[in-house]
Amino acid sequence: KLYEDVADLPALQYDFVVVGGGTAGLVVASRLTENSSVSVLVLEAGPSNVGVLDAQVPFLADGVANNGTPYSWNYSTIPQTGAANHVFEYLRGEVYTWWMQLAQQDGLAYTRGAAEDFDRYANLTGDEGWSWNKIFPYFLKNERWTAPADHHDTHGQYNPAVHGTDGPIQVSISGFSWSEFEQHVIQTTEQLPHDFPFNLDMNSGKPLGIGWFQYTIGGGERSSSATGYLTPAVLRRPNLDILLHAQVSKLVNVTQSRVVPAEPLAFRGVEFKYGSSLHVAKASKEIILSAGPIGTPQILLNSGVGDRTALTALGISTVLDLPGVGKNASEHPYFGMSWAVNSNQTVESITQNATRYNEAFAEWNRSHTGPFVDPTPGTHAGWLRLRANSSVFDIHPDPSPGPDAPHFEMIFQPFGFAGTPGHFISLTMAMVSPVSRGSVTLSSADPFATPLIDLGLFSNEFDALALTEGIQFALKFVTAPTWNGYLGAPTVDLTSMSPAELTAYIRAHSGPGVPRYPDLKVKGFAGLRVIDASVLPIVPGAHTQAATYVVAERGADLVKHSWS
Ligand SMILES: Cc1cc2nc3c(=O)[nH]c(=O)nc-3n(C[C@H](O)[C@H](O)[C@H](O)COP(=O)(O)OP(=O)(O)OC[C@H]3O[C@@H](n4cnc5c(N)ncnc54)[C@H](O)[C@@H]3O)c2cc1C
Predict the structure, then answer these.
(1) Does ipTM exceed 0.95?
(2) In which domain, by residue range, is 357 found?
């Protein structure tokens, strides 16, 4: 049951306490409570998604992410020295993040990454269970492929053989056509097939090439772990309680035991704030941290699990010296380019025309059809590699997990970024195999203080130089003959810049994606696990929700197995 008030919560003692009701947390809670003999409490800082239009209507998805809404943690990065000391709002990165509350993955893009991403996780962890072949069934278990809202013929737009059909999360292809723009993208794959081959399905484990974007959307609405895993039937389970507006500060009631020498420590309680009062929820079996790549390391650090020197400097006593907590954060920086177009068939035809906007919204309300059924990220995506002889490999060895994995994602969007009147299209180039690393650290001993988020953007020269090369792919893409007569002037003329100027410009104008933190079971502890995006040891070359879902599905199986 969903509780809005701590006073209504029937108990503060459960078998499992899950911290965070986001993408992963709700999967774990839903799967664990399939066994009616275990009890689970989820503590979520945010409000409910129910009745929040921005969380329901794909076209309004940005509204959930913006700083200043009740659904955002309102975080910013610390000044990024590698990016002209820019302070980035840490959410609007079109691509990734974590602070959506109750499972609102903003952009809705559904991309699994390369098979090689998962095979690398298997190698790094020594656990074959994370390999693509072993993880693939979890993708199918999570997914329910769904016809697009306009029921158009999807033949040749995806490969049904690699999709699940009866999982909780609906996945679909755009349900409204920006046909003119789409044709130019597809024709480019025919006119420049060597550089930009068509890929029938970017979620087959071999993402390279240009293909139709897939989204976590069903029937014109967002599909998320809140809608897919927290169904009315699941919410009626007597063994599942979810408390909203409960912000966890730290783990408490640490005990020491000699029973398992490798796991001498255990936390038995989770301290959380509801309103102005503090409470402790107790877990007899496990505490599962699913608070995302910022929340999870912050809670561990608040609890005294982290680098001893840094904790001591803040006056926090160390429970276990684990210097890796909050380190190894990485990000997908991206750079967007816009061109004016000789057409009025762009998203601006809605966003810059109040009458059409209202008509489109009314259509969505009436029949869940029309342009509001899709988010605005784009109609297609392309996954590309640096050229094998690129000079950037002199600076750093290839950071991608293998030859079938991308260095870049190119997103094709029938709208511009400038915000000026007119009609535009954009190509966004994201660097999805970053070498730079950052960190999440505490700003004070106050567990509710905003943590310091350092994405380390461009701290390694490789990333900026690689992204500069990536820009050349985008500029080449629009040289295909199909764009003649359609494409107007770029909003910023990048071709007039020298390579050094272009690199500096990219450093100053790129946006961020998401950091993460590795490790599933927290070393040294009994009954403490991390199950969320932060366990991925290296960010996949993809948007991260699909990887998070399979981490959560397998994570839930691992927990079940431990207690069976
Ligand atoms: C703007 C934006 C766009 C995105 N677009 C896409 C996309 O298009 N495609 C894609 O694949 N991925 C996208 N993502 C990324 C995706 O949302 C994440 O990969 C995914 O949500 C990570 O799941 P998680 O369970 O680790 O964390 P989350 O889903 O963030 O869940 C963490 C939960 O814990 C809660 N929490 C945190 N701290 C505490 C605390 N102290 N106490 C209690 N609760 C706490 C949070 O409120 C949240 O509900 C986007 C993210 C953002 C923000």
Answers:
(1) yes
(2) 106-223+333-431+459-509
